[in-house]
Specification:
Shape of chain A: globular
Protein name (chain B): Branched-chain amino acid ABC transporter permease
Subcellular location (chain B): Cell membrane
Oligomer: heterodimer
Strand content of chain B: under 5%
Radius of gyration of chain A: 19 Å
Largest sheet of chain A: 2 strands, antiparallel
Distance between the termini of chain A: 8 Å
Low-confidence stretches of chain B: none
Pfam family, one (chain B): BPD_transp_2
Strand order of the largest sheet of chain A: 1-4
Largest sheet of chain B: 2 strands, antiparallel
Membrane topology (chain B): Multi-pass membrane protein
Structural class of chain A: mainly alpha
Organism (chain B): Aromatoleum evansii (Azoarcus evansii)
Chain lengths: ~300, ~290
Amino acid sequence: MNGKHIGWIVLLLIGLVAPFVVYPVLVMKILCFALFACAFNLLLGYTGLLSFGHAAFLGSAGYICGYAMQGLGLSPELGLLAGSAGAAVLGFIFGSLAIRRAGIYFAMITLALAQLVFFLALQFPFTGGEDGMQGIPRGRLFGLIDLADTMNMYFFVLAVFLFGFWVIDRAIDSPFGQVLKAIRENEPRAISLGYDVDRYKLLAFVLSAALAGLAGATKTLVFQLASLTDVHWHMSGEVVLMTLLGGVGTVFGPIVGATIVVSLQNYGAELGQWVTVLTGVIFVVCVLAFRRGVVGEVALLIKRSGIRP
Amino acid sequence: MDIFGIPIQALMGQLLIGLINGSFYAILSLGLAIIFGLLNIINFAHGALYMMGAFCAWIGLNWLGLNYWVALIAVPVVVGAFGMLIERTMLKHLYKLDHLYGLLLTFGLALIIEGLFRYRFGISGESYPVPELLAGGFNLGFMFLPKYRAWVIAVSLVVCFGSWFIIERTKLGSYLRAGTENPQLLQAFGINVPLMITLTYGFGVALAAFAGVLAAPVLQVNPVMGSNLIIVVFAVVVIGGMGSIMGSIVTGLGLGLIEGLTKVFYPEASAVVIFVIMGIVLLLRPAGLFGRER
């Protein structure tokens, strides 16, 4: 049994107990953002690509899922599938354009493309513009389980999260993941070894976008709402913050980061305008003094203390 | 008189606004390019510092009674000094790290600056009066040209080409270009490179603040004016490539004009046209119009 197995068991236990201790909707929100951050971390932490436009996938999957449920009357599992597929297609378009440039340009291109999606979401008639889509039904899962019940919904969200997290975990440990890490460490060397680097980057981008979309579609089901907040560039910044705070390139870091940031926003609601300032301060502190993030620092402490997990 | 069914006054009016926006794109992308060249940092806070320039002008007028002309000189100096303080205390610790950390740190700074101004001023915005000397306008027969708008375009062009001249044609500029190519070698020749980096960042920031003061009387002075602008400027930078100063100026002005024209002929697309052009440029010429393939 190694550290990761312990992590999985702890995660599962917390997931099962949490809704009986904390307000379940808050835990569902944390799970959605944790999946979003893990999907983002697949790119930043394991491929070394900083996407500053991930809100586009979260938000547009939310709209697509909302339209599938409300406009077409599909069941929730098909709604999630449609949302993820839509985000994957969008990810393919973003990825094909953005991987043409490296490093800092990659971040600027994804940010600009996400802003394009924001303006489209503002103008398309079916998104409801400034008001967003409201009163989206949760529906019955596989036609059997009524998701209007909070606990049913909670365990469905937990299952979706664990599925997404498992996919990411598998991808990281697979030969595919090893190639991604090689690209992160030394791209020219990966090319010289004969890997088609652009194809790997694109595949990682599409996978990350699809899972971010899964998170966005699930979030829409939970809150029965799809709005412009989820496609705004603030959201793209927030997912970077969650990942950075939790630990870039660590398996569990983004989950910790998402938990901290969402709790902060929830319990710090009376901070009002100061939330933006506080977010900025956390960014600055993380970059200057805390680049390993919470999980990265803890892992380092364990390593230094000589305990073999 | 109509062109393609559009009254010429409307066409010229939009072109003028396009040219003004283009001037701001040019000044901001110029500053981003200079900073990136030497510091290897994309300054996400550039938009926030532009907003800060506009607000400092407003504060100078309403709280301290300093007029527009004083603000035009004093605000870039003050905000530029603030920029140098940021460089000395924070950015200088990042030069050995991945470029991405610079982007993330300045993103955090942008949030802090924007958040503080939003806390103090709300998001509704303040208006800044056009200075008396530049009130009114010229009647050119086919259109009415407000004096202030003509002034913004003229002074922006002077600043852009002045910067180009300093960087490409003077000794000081040759140090800057040498530092972009190889800072170690320049240091070995006895130039104080860290000081030069600080001054360069200060200069780039001062340019952004200057654009902010110019913008104050034309646009609403508003805490989110910077973040709306910076994303468009990023697209401008991707389209033009950061390799050339003249490239930044031409791309900025050109895209402003195109945006203005889109507002006339197809208003629904005016918010997205620059991003669409960015996509097309990436497909056809990934390094950007003036960029070099690495």
